[in-house]
Amino acid sequence: MSSDLYRPIPYHPERLSRAESHQRGAEFFQELDQRRSVRFFSDEPVPRELIELAIRTASTAPSGAHRQPWTFVAVSDAETKRQIRIAAEEEERRSYLGGRMPDDWLEALAPLGTDWRKPFLETVPWLVVAFEQVWSFHPDGSRRKNYYVKESVGLACGLFITALHHMGLATLTHTPSPMRFLSQILGRPDNERPYILFPVGYPAPDCQVPDIQRKPLEEVAVWNPKSS
Ligand code: IYR
Fold it and tell me: Which CATH architecture group holds 37-204?
């Protein structure tokens, strides 16, 4: 079905040689393979312009019907970070110690060394909370449906952490559960739900990370027998 709303424009991205593609792909992989989720941050300030660049990069993500159903809320003031830490730790304490997380989940997390305490939420210079817009608004204020919201926001968040890593910054895809307290503290509207809470900063000088390996290609890729 063709529509008079479909008015495409030309698209001619640079065509790379095979060698150039390979080199860029290999370098990009090496760079991203260095990325680690960090739980120990320096309090060193991070300029706002770097956070802006990461959010602009995130917002280049593809999205269902191009609705771009995300809002990134950036927080740097000590008072709000403190409120978020207190509320997150309250929820996490109930999850870890109050029996809200089943034993198999606690076992799965044991190698990561996590517990209910989240001091990094106050140490870091920035907290960036990604919200999903479950619906949007028409100009007249009525509800406008969004599509593939979780997929879209997940893609944007992937690009966000990639941009941060490329700029030498560290983050954690933190999901204190449940996250409703973030809507209250940050005064977000009813159409938005918290999706991921990202502490953003430089790793602490004595930062440590779990000794984990990534699955090799053979475990994550399958080549269809009929394909070359
Ligand atoms: N939200 C908790 C628990 C947690 C869950 C998963 I899945 C992780 O990969 C890590 C932690 C927390 O942030 O500690």
Answer: 3-Layer(aba) Sandwich (3.40)
What is the CA(61)–ligand 1 centre distance, in A? 25
At residue 31, does pLDDT exceed 80? yes
Q: Which atom of ligand 1 is nearest to the CA of 101?
A: 3
Whole-number Å distance between alpha carbons of 52 and 46: 11
Give CA–CA dist 69/132, Å, rounded: 6
pTM of the entire structure?
Answer: 0.96
189-215 confidence digits (pLDDT tens): 999 999 999 999 999 999 999 999 999
Domain ranges of the chain: 37-204
Q: Cis (ω within 30 of 0) for the bond into 178?
A: yes
CA of 87 to the centre of ligand 1 (A): 15
Render pLDDT for 139-164 as a digit per residue (tens, 0 to 9): 999 999 999 999 999 999 999 999 99
The pLDDT value given to residue 2 = 73
Cα of 127 vs centre of ligand 1, distance in Å, is 17
Closest residue CA from atom 2 of ligand 1: 176
| Cα 175 to ligand 1 centre (Å) | 6
Q: What's the one-letter identity of residue 91?
A: E
Q: Hey, which residues does 133 pair with through a beta bridge?
A: 192
State both tokens at 88.
Answer: 């997150």
Average pLDDT estimate for 96-104? 92
Nearest to 84 by CA among 41, 40, 128, 141: 128
Q: Which tokens is 226 given?
A: 């009929």
**Ligand 1 pocket by Cβ (under 6 Å):** 92, 109, 112, 114, 174-177
